[in-house]
Amino acid sequence: MKKNVLVFGSIAGLITTIVMVCSTAACYISADYHGNMWLGYGSMILAFSMIFVAVKNFRDKYNGGVISFGKAFQIGLYIALIASTIYVLTWLIEYYAFFPNFMEKLTDYTLKQARENGATAAEIAKTKQQFASYAEMYKTPFGVILFTYIEILPVGLVIALIAALALKRKNADPQLATN
Description:
mainly alpha, 80% helix
């Protein structure tokens, strides 16, 4: 199980990391964050599809065609943790080495979008205050790590749960329907 989890967790982490690095660089070049949230979460779903592959691979190749919900979820959980950790470590390097003003740029973009969409002064002030609290939390590595895990790990956990439900199998020889 260990090799299965490490291989598929690393692949999932690599997928999310490549998309994150490219989209962050694109945001800085164009100063347009529009659509990148969807691209990011789409890449996470694609990456975490490796959980389905890993659980099925383990079930069929190493476990005689049988896997419990608990074991399937455990595999998915470990893959989600490995991929999320790779993502978080990459973001830490990217943020501190290349984009230390990320929160300021994101705040500016969000406020600009709010103004363009006709937000009231009170709504803009509330958004500004909200982003100021995010920026305050982002001043420590712990805050950056926490925010980044919160961004990716829940997606992996939901997909691990779905994969465990979909791929659990109690008997190796499922009965086929007869006419």
